[in-house]
Structures are given as structure tokens and as C-alpha cells.
Design a protein that fits this description.
The structure holds two protein chains of two kinds. By secondary structure, chain A is of the alpha/beta class. Chain A is built from 26 helices and 18 strands. The chains are: A alpha/beta, B alpha+beta.
Chain lengths: 667, 163
């Protein structure tokens, strides 16, 4: 084992060793020495810490963002290219693979840091231009083309690159408050020492050494932290109930089953800073008196699982997990359970059933999980982002955390910005930031000059906020007022080309397939709602029997059906399942009416309602549409205008895509 | 076949000493990881070892989207149908793949080359629309990209190189 930060021994007064660990040793890394006063000892410690903080480096370091999103954008090849470049130039430089900094739209990202200079960040670095950028930086000139900016030098010792803007002034980063994401994309997620150098685990050892579980719960409650996974229940209060439920065995669970399509902050935090989440769950376990903790994580996130495994093994090896941790008497073991692809398992009681090896169906409550949860024992369950907030709250205090935010919602929230927005990625802002700021300023607005229409927030349980309410300041309460909810914080932006009925149908289809089937309102109700939406979006040519009569009946029932499902479903997911439909009905009733009365889709998304035709003036008779048509509905001789036979057309739109001159139109 | 299978299941189960019901899902996951799907015989064997009725195990296995009861193709294509991908046109991508391969999702082509699966979200929303082929994520897809990627796979299969 390489000596790391936990092995620091400044002088003979320090008795810390791997065989007998000093309980203060982790806090001592940055704050030390705590047991005696000696300036030299402090400086000796700090110089070791600085090696891992990497404010300055001894030899060039090249960072490549290799989260799942980075790899999808081609970062794997970038890494290969950088390594080949180092080998070719025979330079003493190292490559560090980091997680995602959140700026997914700029990926693949590469940072370069030279001795004495701050770290530079470049966007869209592929295997083709990597060598060129590196050559130019090594020669002392910063290529402007792919440059994002340079990082700050906290100590002011580094000489900034002339003419390079600080990265914090980039519009994507300028309005963010990065607490949970502070290390993501900056540190090596496979290195425990880097996390320690950034102050990692000192909150945990402080808790073990000097706080009672009740004090931890009190501090959480005072901070005002609320669950970041959906409901927004106060974390401290949840822990308190679990703490006060007597039992010799309790369980702490981290919900990393990020099933909400459109949200990926949990994945990014685990991939980029896994130790933060482990420290969070360890503090939580201590606070409720659990000696066993679980990570329930989606199998669709293989990289996150791998990072988590590595991090848990490291923590175990250094005695941060295990028996009698740091001589405190507390035990903790963490197990990883992989989800198996069921949306409903994001619901806490369904998740517990899944860990027990059963079908992931919610349980009626009471009893609440904090009283009788996993294996019938008191259990607390928190989302990844919630737990990632915990270490800083403990270390900096409840007042620090509650200093930002709104009256009922404190701290920050990470949003996953995606859809029709220029800057897609992860954004962390203070609670109470307006949607306008998030989408138009940080997100850079809607691309291609199109008009913003609405933003869907909270996934299948949430709702949409239309353009006239863009000034809404986001917190738990304000969203509820507008028929949406925080959910896990997925923000999917939609422009004028998106049909709101189609979006509602999409969510209903998703929920209907993912309904576990236990309670009737959700199982049957969502199915009926989907059928109604199907009927609304079906054109005459696809209708059978009495469907054209049924569709009117359906529309009348849609709203009522939604209200009943909300009131009578068993679990939180069922109770929120009609939200996407109800909220689009509330804000975009005219679009529904156009579908129902005029059988028209204003956004031209519902294919069944579209009639395709070829402009005879424009058509040059190239025949590409004929080839593309799967139902032989296009006729015409070569080099003369073609024609679509409406009776044969299935409305797939292939001809429109195939036409090189845009002669096919849809009405 | 049965002999091989028994050995495989024994090997997988040996990682879970004293396994109870709570180990069922991980065992099924390992089995699928190893064999590529859950053959009926394997489920029966697991049931015998865990002292669980086969019906219960199928009850659990069919509940979760992850489990397959048909062999995977050599190229396993997962198309993301999350919200972000939807608004960026993943339905078109999916339909093109279906047309190109001639199969519905959840099925495998007759030549055993491709299997298609719809997944809720890969978590690479910023690159929407995305799909993954044997775990490798491809982002910002167009229908042309899809055709090209499938062609590449076919070519790779012909030349016998592993992708």
C-alpha cells in the first residue's frame, strides 16, 4: 500500500499508524496538527495535501472527463490520443480520468495544467485535435478555438494565462452555486487521497468522535435539508424517527435508482465524486444507529457501479468502514444492490421489496419504513444528492447551509438540463433561482432560433411550466403551486416543434408500462388514460370501428380520471402519475382542442394526424422517396413529379426525411 | 447442456454462501451476465438451490425489465426512450432500427446477430438521442447514423472481428 494522506506523521508526537489509528487523524490532515502546536508540522502536512489538491503541479497533468456522457461523446478515444501523444513526445506528463464537470454540451472535455500555471479547460477535444491543442499549450500559446477558460488560483501563487477568461465567468458556470458538484470533474474519482485532500471524511470522523446520533439529527433538521429525490421530506426528521425506533438491527439505504428519465445527477455525482456519497451514507447510518447500509443503484449505470465498488473497497481498507471505526464503537458495512430496471423501485417501499428479492411493489403505509422497513426493521432511505449534501452540512454547520435558498427550501439543487436547450448538462443553483436564469442564462436558451414553449420538470411525476411563467423561482412549494413538482430535478426543455399532447402521451405510455399493477387506480387508470390519449392522436385513416365516437367520450373523462388516480393510488408514483396530463391540459388546452376537434397537430408531431403530400412544382423526380417508403405509397416516373397515394400512406414520414430538396410537406 | 448449466449455476451460487431470498435478484443477474439470458432450466436449478418455487422466481424475473428469456444477439442494441431522447426524436431512431433489423424490441434477429431492447434512460441525456451497442454509448444520433452503425456491426461480424 502506497503511503497516502492517512499515513501522514509530522513528528514523533503524532502516534497515528496503520495498526493504531488516531481518531483525529482524518481531521488532522488539513487542520492539523490538532494534538500539539507546531508550525513546521502544519506546513509539512499542508505540503502533502497540496500534492493531491493539485493547485500547482510538478509535471504537466492532462485531465479528460470520462463519465458516461463523456465516453458517449468519444472521450475514450481522446484518452488514447493523449496517451499516444505523451508516448510520442516522451514528456513526463500524466493523464487523469475525471468525472463529469456538468458541461455535457462541450464534451469531450480535456483540461491541461502546466507547472506554475492554472488549469486550462478545452471543449470538444477528439482524437483528431487533441495533439494539436497539447502541442500549442506546451509551446506556451493557448489555442482559442476550443478554449473554455482557466481555473482560479485560490492562493494567487500561480501566474494566470494572459488573455484567458476565468472559467467561472463562462455563462454556463457564472450563475451556478456548486456545492454537491464541487469536486465533480475536478478530482480523480478513483483516488481516496484526493477526496481527503479536499476535506473528505473529516465530517464523518468528527461525528464519530464528538457528536451523538441525536445531535447529528438535530443539526440536519436545523439545516432545513429536504429530500432531493422527489417528495422533499425533511431529512433530519426522517432520521429522527428511525433513530427513535428501538431495534438491535437498523438499515440505512441510499436510493440511486435514478429511474426518472431525463435526470442523471445521481449518476454524475457517483461517477465523479463517489466518496462524498459514501461519507454521506456513513454519517446517516451513524445518525440512525444502523450498522448495515445499502446502495440500490440502477444496473444501467455500469460505470457508476464500478466507481462505487472501488470507493467502498478503499474506504474499507483504510478503516473508514468496518468494525469499530476509528475506535468509536460504531460498525458499518455497505453493500451494493443492483436494480433490475423497474421505475417503480424508486419508490422507497418498492425498493425495499426489491432488496429483499421480491417483486418491486410498494407496501401500504403505515407502518412507515422508519418504523418497519427493510426486513421489517427500522430503515431510513435517502437519495444520492441528499446524502451528498450531508458532509458539508456537518462540517460547515446548519447555518451555513440554510444561508442560501428560500424560506421552505434551503441549500442548492442540481438540475439535469436537457432537451431543446443549447447548454445541456448538470446545473447546480441555489434554491429560489428563477427558471429564466436556469434555462436562458445558464442553459443558453433554445437553439436554432426556435421559440421556447415549456419545460417539463420532475419527470413522469412532474408537470410542465409554460413560457409565461418562466420567471418562477424554483423551490418545492412554488412548483407545487403550478402543478409540477421538484421530483429528482430533470428539466427537459421543449420548443415550438414539440407537441404537448405527444409529450403527455409519452409519459402516460411510460407510466402505464412501468405501473407495478398492485393497485387498481394506477394499473387500470393509467391504461385508460393512455387509450384516450391514443384516440386523440389517431387520425381517421388509422381508426377502426366506433373509435371516432369513443374519442369524444374519452376526452370528457380524461380530467376526472386523472383526479381519481391522484386521490386513490397506493404509492407516491401512482398519486403523481396523472400530473403530466393534468398540467399540459391546464396550460395547453388549445393544443388538445386542436387534436380533438380539428384533428390537427399544430406542432406536426403526431404522425397519424398528418397528411403528407409532394409539391409537384418542387419535385425533381429523383425517386429517393419511393425507395424510402415502406408501404409503396409513392408513385411517379423517373424525373417527373411524384405523388403520394393517401390510402396507402401509413404516415411514417420517411419520404419527408428522404427528400433532399424539401418537396414533401405535412399538414 | 444440463451438465454445463449445473456447473455454471454452482459456480455463480458459490459467490453467495448461505444465500436466502434476498440474494435471488443478484443471482439471476449473474446468471444472465454469464449466459446472456435466463434459460428455463437455469431458473429451475436456482429454485432448487434456494428452496423457492419456480413460479415465484419467474414472478420476480418477469417483473423486472432487465431479465431476458431469449438469447441475446451478438450485438445487443439498447435504445434510450427517456424524455430528453423523446423530445429529440428517439422514436424515429427506434423505428429506423426496427425497420433495418426487421424485429420488435425485446426480440433477437433470426441470424442471432442483433437483439433490440428499449431502456428507460441511459443517463446520457445531454447527448440525446442515444443508444448503446454492447454497452458502448453512441450519442447525438440521426437515422443515418443508425444505418451506418448497423452496417458497421454487420461488417464486423463478417470479418469475424469482435467489436
Amino acid at each position: 500500500m502506497m503511503p497516502g494522506l492517512m499515513d501522514i506523521k509530522c513528528c514523533d508526537k503524532c502516534w497515528n499508524s496503520s495498526s493504531k489509528v488516531c481518531p483525529e487523524s482524518v481531521e488532522c490532515i488539513k487542520e492539523g496538527p490538532l494534538c500539539h502546536e507546531d508550525k513546521d508540522c502544519g506546513n509539512a502536512r499542508l505540503s502533502r495535501v497540496n500534492e493531491f489538491l493539485r493547485e500547482d503541479v510538478a509535471a504537466p497533468v492532462i485531465f479528460v472527463g470520462t463519465g458516461t456522457c463523456g465516453i458517449g461523446a468519444g472521450a475514450g478515444k481522446t484518452v488514447q490520443a493523449v496517451k499516444a501523444w505523451i508516448a510520442e513526445k516522451k514528456i513526463n506528463a500524466s493523464v487523469v480520468e475525471v468525472g463529469c464537470v456538468g458541461a455535457c454540451f462541450l464534451e469531450p472535455l480535456m483540461d491541461v495544467q502546466l507547472p506554475g500555471r492554472p488549469r486550462l479547460s478545452f471543449s470538444e477535444v477528439t482524437e483528431k485535435n487533441a495533439a494539436k491543442i497539447l502541442d500549442s499549450v506546451m509551446a506556451g500559446t493557448v489555442p482559442a478555438g476550443n478554449l473554455i477558460g482557466q481555473y482560479d488560483s485560490p492562493s494567487g501563487k500561480l501566474q494566470p494565462w494572459p488573455g484567458v477568461a476565468p472559467i467561472s465567468s463562462h455563462p454556463f458556470f457564472a450563475k451556478q452555486t456548486r456545492w454537491v458538484l464541487r469536486n465533480c470533474g475536478l478530482i480523480d474519482p478513483t483516488s481516496l487521497d484526493e477526496y481527503l485532500a479536499h476535506g473528505g471524511y473529516r465530517a464523518y470522523t468528527k461525528v464519530l468522535r464528538s457528536m451523538t446520533p441525536a445531535e447529528v439529527c438535530d443539526q440536519m433538521e436545523k439545516s432545513g435539508l429536504r429530500g432531493r429525490g422527489g417528495g422533499g421530506f425533511p431529512t433530519g426528521r426522517k432520521w429522527k424517527v428511525a433513530l427513535n425506533s428501538p431495534s438491535e438491527q437498523k438499515y440505512m439505504i441510499c436510493n440511486a435508482d435514478e429511474g426518472d428519465p431525463g435526470a442523471f445527477m445521481d449518476r454524475a455525482v457517483i461517477e465523479g465524486d463517489p466518496h462524498r456519497v459514501i461519507e454521506g451514507i456513513a454519517i446517516a447510518a451513524y445518525a440512525i444507529g444502523a450498522s448495515q447500509a445499502y446502495f440500490y443503484i440502477r444496473a444501467e449505470y455500469p460505470l457508476a457501479i464500478q466507481r462505487l465498488r472501488t470507493a467502498i473497497a478503499q474506504a474499507r481498507e483504510r478503516g473508514l468502514l468496518g468494525r469499530n471505526i476509528f475506535d468509536s464503537g460504531a460498525d458499518l458495512d455497505i453493500k451494493i444492490k443492483m436494480g433490475a430496471g423497474a421505475f417503480v423501485c424508486g419508490e422507497e417501499t418498492a425498493l425495499m421489496n426489491s432488496i429483499e428479492g421480491r417483486r418491486g411493489m410498494p407496501r401500504p403505509r403505515p407502518p412507515y419504513p422508519a418504523v418497519s422497513g427493510l426486513f421489517g426493521k427500522p430503515s431510513a432511505i435517502n437519495n444520492v444528492e441528499t446524502l451528498a449534501n450531508v458532509p458539508d452540512i456537518i462540517w460547515n454547520g446548519a447555518d451555513w447551509f440554510s444561508s442560501i435558498g428560500t424560506e421552505g427550501s434551503k441549500g442548492t439543487k442540481v438540475f439535469a438540463l436537457s432537451g431543446k436547450v443549447s447548454h445541456t448538462g448538470l446545473v447546480e443553483v441555489a434554491m429560489g433561482t428563477s427558471l429564466q436564469d436556469i434555462i436562458m442564462e445558464i442553459g443558453g436558451g433554445v437553439p436554432d432560433g426556435k421559440a421556447f414553449k415549456a419545460v417539463q420538470i420532475g419527470g413522469p411525476s412532474g408537470g410542465c411550466i409554460p413560457s409565461q411563467h418562466l420567471d418562477l423561482e424554483i423551490d418545492y412549494e412554488s412548483l407545487k403551486k403550478f402543478g409540477a413538482m421538484m421530483g429528482s430535478g430533470g428539466l427537459v426543455v421543449m420548443d415550438e416543434a414539440n407537441c404537448m399532447v405527444d409529450v403527455a402521451r409519452f409519459f402516460m405510455d411510460f407510466i402505464q408500462r412501468e405501473s407495478c399493477g398492485k393497485c387498481i387506480p394506477c394499473r387500470e387508470g393509467t391504461r385508460r388514460m393512455l387509450e384516450i390519449l391514443d384516440a386523440i392522436t389517431t387520425g381517421r385513416r388509422d381508426e377502426k370501428g366506433h373509435q371516432s365516437l369513443e374519442r369524444f367520450k374519452g376526452v370528457i373523462n380524461l380530467e376526472q380520471l386523472g383526479t381519481v388516480i391522484k386521490k386513490t393510488s397506493l404509492c407516491g408514483l401512482g398519486q403523481t402519475a396523472p400530473n403530466p396530463v393534468l398540467s399540459t391540459l391546464r396550460w395547453f388546452r388549445d393544443e388538445y382542442e386542436a387534436h380533438v376537434y380539428e384533428r390537427k397537430c399544430p406542432a406536426k408531431q403526431c404522425k397519424s394526424l398528418l397528411a403528407f403530400s409532394i409539391d409537384h412544382e418542387k419535385c425533381v423526380g429523383c425517386g429517393l422517396c419511393t425507395k424510402a417508403c415502406p408501404s409503396d405509397a409513392i408513385l411517379g416516373a423517373k424525373k417527373s413529379p411524384h405523388h403520394i397515394v393517401p390510402e396507402r400512406c401509413i404516415g411514417c414520414g420517411s419520404c419527408m426525411e428522404a427528400c433532399p430538396i424539401g418537396a414533401v410537406s405535412a399538414e | 447442456m444440463r451438465q454445463d448449466l449445473t456447473q455454471t449455476i454452482d459456480r455463480i451460487m458459490s459467490a453467495y454462501p448461505g444465500a436466502g431470498r434476498d440474494a435471488l435478484i443478484p443471482i439471476l443477474q449473474d446468471t444472465q451476465e454469464d449466459i446472456g439470458y435466463l434459460p428455463r432450466e437455469a431458473v429451475v436449478l436456482i429454485g432448487e438451490k434456494l428452496h423457492l418455487p419456480v413460479s415465484k422466481i419467474f414472478g420476480v424475473a418477469t417483473f423486472y425489465n432487465q431479465f431476458r428469456f431469449e438469447p441475446k444477439g451478438r450485438f445487443h442494441i439498447q435504445v434510450c426512450r427517456g424524455t430528453a431522447c423523446h423530445v429529440k426524436g428517439s422514436l424515429k431512431v427506434l423505428e429506423r432500427i426496427k425497420r433495418e433489423l426487421g424485429i420488435e424490441s425485446g426480440r433477437t434477429t433470426r441470424d442471432g446477430l442483433f437483439s433490440l431492447e428499449i431502456v428507460a434512460c441511459i443517463g446520457a441525456c445531454a447527448l440525446a438521442p442515444v443508444m448503446s451497442i454492447n454497452g458502448e454509448v453512441h450519442g447525438r444520433l440521426t437515422t443515418d447514423d443508425v444505418v451506418r452503425l448497423i452496417k458497421d456491426c454487420r461488417k464486423a461480424a463478417e470479418t469475424g472481428e469482435a467489436r
